[in-house]
Amino acid sequence: MLMPILAGMIVDQVITQGHRDRLGRLCLAMIAVTFVRTICRYTYQIMMERFGQNSIYRLVSDEYEKLHDLDFTYFNHTRNGDIMSRLTSDTDAIRHFLSWVTYQGLDCIVLFIGSLAVMFTIEWRLALALACVTPFLFYFTRELSRHAHPLFYNIRNSLARLNSMVEENIEGNRVVKAFVREPFETEKFDGHNDDYMQRNMASAYNSRRYMPWLDGCSYMLQLITLIFGGWLVINHYMSLGALVSFNSFLWMINEPVRQSGWLMNDVERFNASCVKIRRLLTAKSKIRERPDAQESVSQAALVRAKVSGQEAQAAEPEKIRGEVRFDHVSFAFPDDPETPVLKDIDFLAPAGTKVGILGETGSGKSTLVSLIARFYDPSVGHVVIDGIDARDWPLQTLRSQVNIVAQDTFLFSDTIEGNIAFGAPRADNDYVRSMASIAGADSFISGMPQGYGTVVGERGVGLSGGQKQRLSLARALADNPSILIMDDTTSAVDMETEAQIQEHLQQMAGSRTIFTIAHRISSVKDSDLILVLDHGRIVERGNHENLVKAHGRYWQIYRKQLGLQSGQSVGFE
Ligand SMILES: Nc1ncnc2c1ncn2[C@@H]1O[C@H](COP(=O)(O)OP(=O)(O)OP(=O)(O)O)[C@@H](O)[C@H]1O
User: Fold this and answer.
1) Could you report the per-residue pLDDT of 205-240, keeping only the tens digit for each?
2) Using a 6 Å cutoff on CB, does residue 343 contact ligand 1?
3) What positions does the domain ABC transmembrane type-1 occupy (predicted)?
4) Which spans in 70-181 are helix H?
5) At a CB cut-off of 8 Å and minimum separation 6, what does 229 contact?
6) What stretch of H or E contains 483?
7) 407: Cβ below 6 Å to ligand 1?
8) How far apart are CA 385 and CA 369, in angstroms?
9) How confident is the model at residue 571 (pLDDT cuts 50, 70, 90)?
10) Whose CA is nearest to atom 19 of ligand 1?
């Protein structure tokens, strides 16, 4: 704000009054002001950029940590594209606001108020005439902001839909190609793309509605200065130098007036992104750990050790032995509480035993085992691990010792060795190799040109279904869990390899509790306890011999599968 004052002084003192000796000093002052202003501006721009980048760094880490903290229910309801938008474009809108909009906004407010204040000291009548424009300015910026608010929210949601569609199509590109659905998918994408464009255009139209008025305010300021200021100079109420200063200040208040519309748009974009990020950061996981979980488990371990006389066990309260008891458990997913998926499940699997679970698709097998790792909590009843309710265990202890080899195998884009050692980063080559052998994977890995150093593509692209299953089993074994759950893990593996894997696992019997979900009788027949599920209920239980003798559901499945294998369909008793 010093520059216009200096310019006015040059006009008044040097040009009008003829004090030429002052010109050099005034010019030097102008150079000094320019120099200081440039340094200040550069410094605070860098500071604000650093402020924005640091905040974003923390924000993204918090978001990422939160994602790991959230339970399955959150991911069941939130599209991946939406989550990705929060981590990328929303976060960037916040960075832009923090490192650019804040200082531009501050600049505008300081310039506007400061310039107007100085203008009052130069010539209050003209400044008052200019200040009359301010209410209009507030009105138009407020209206622009009010209408822009929902528009930016819609733009943000539309972008999330677009991202989800792209992501789904990249993941499902094989299915799209196999069904020759490229034109259909492209048309669907164009629909989303068009929606995104229309919503952006709606925002542009909103700007177009108010920006000309804001520009008009800025022209009004110029008109008032020229007409009223000129009149004041002609009538000797004001010097020409003062009018020159005024005119320079006019440029300074013009800039905030013109920018206010654009800044309001940025503020609304920031608001829409904040809403989404706040929703992610404040989302609550339904699976929560008791604050005193560690303590209560240690106490329980101590009491149990004293009662059973096995004092050594009290020293390892963190170690799960592997006893699993379902105590009249019923369960319905939170989004469909009316439909119980599991009904009155009640069984005991002592530590070190093998449990087989059989049942037709959708009977609730995967849901049942997901309760052991506390991916969900039972709606009714208790899942008890080593005599302690699963809800009372520290989550980390529980999940580090209960390992589910899921139906849908997921591998990281890393080396085979890196994938197997995912849960045991300190594992050496020999350990990784021995786990791969147990999972029947060593032979095919060794056959690869780069062996264990072979990098697998995203989600394990480049491997067959059976190979991926064996790798994920090896990864689970390397984690050395006390409770190993195999959810249809060997469904894509040939019978011979599966038999070998079963044999290897049999050798581990006693050291860990193993749950095997399968459709093939051969996968579960050696189990100590076999549960047959039907519509979420256990309809039969026992070992293979007892169940065959019982001539029930298990026997029917067994008979069918034996008939298929031997080429007979009848004649088996
Ligand atoms: N996230 C979910 N929300 C609501 N219902 C679900 C959800 N996941 C599964 N279900 C339903 O719960 C029931 C049991 O599913 P589950 O995956 O446990 O069956 P399953 O016996 O493991 O089947 P499969 O042998 O095909 O793997 C099914 O009817 C399914 O539709």
Assistant:
1) 998 888 889 888 888 888 998 899 999 999 988 888
2) no
3) 1-269
4) 72-77, 80-85, 91-96, 102-122, 124-131, 134-171, 173-178
5) 123, 126, 238, 243, 246, 247
6) strand 483-487
7) yes
8) 13
9) very low
10) 362
Residue 537's identity, in one-letter code, is R
Residue with CA nearest ligand 1 atom 14 = 364
- In terms of Cβ atoms closer than 10 Å to its own Cβ (0-12, 13-18, 19+), residue 13 is middle
pLDDT digits (tens, 9 = 90+) for 488-522: 887 777 777 777 787 777 777 677 899 999 888 88
> Is the shortest distance between the CB of 359 and ligand 1 below 6 Å?
yes
Residue found under tokens 């009848």? 570
Encoded tokens for 518:
């399968």
85 lines ligand 1 (CB under 6 A): no
Chain position carrying tokens 């786990």 = 435
| pTM exceeding the 0.80 threshold for the entire prediction | no
Per-residue H/E/C for 379-419: CEEEEEECCEEHHHCCHHHHHHHEEEECCCCCCCCCEHHHH
Residue 285 has pLDDT above 50, yes or no: yes
CB of 543 within 8 A of CB of 521?
Answer: no
Nearest CA to ligand 1 atom 27: 361
- Residues for the chain: how many in total? 573
Cα 123 from Cα 228, distance rounded (Å): 11
Q: Which of 453, 464, 530, 454 is nearest to 497 (CA)?
A: 464
Helix axis angle for 182-224 and 240-282, nearest 10°, is: 150
Nearest CA to ligand 1 atom 16: 364
189 lines ligand 1 (CB under 6 A): no
Task: State the pLDDT at residue 314.
Answer: 56
> CB of 489 closer than 6 A to ligand 1?
no
ipTM above 0.90, yes or no: yes
Atom of ligand 1 nearest to the CA of 336: 4
- Ligand 1 neighbourhood includes 573 CB (under 6 angstroms): no
Of all atoms in ligand 1, which is nearest to the CA of residue 368?
18
Q: How far is the CA of 536 from the centre of ligand 1 (A)?
A: 10
Residue 492 CA to its chain's centroid (Å)? 31
Task: Give the integer Cα–Cα distance in Å for 500 and 503.
Answer: 5
> What burial letters (b/e) apply to 529-545, b meaning 16+ CB within 10 Å?
bbbbbeebbbebbbebe
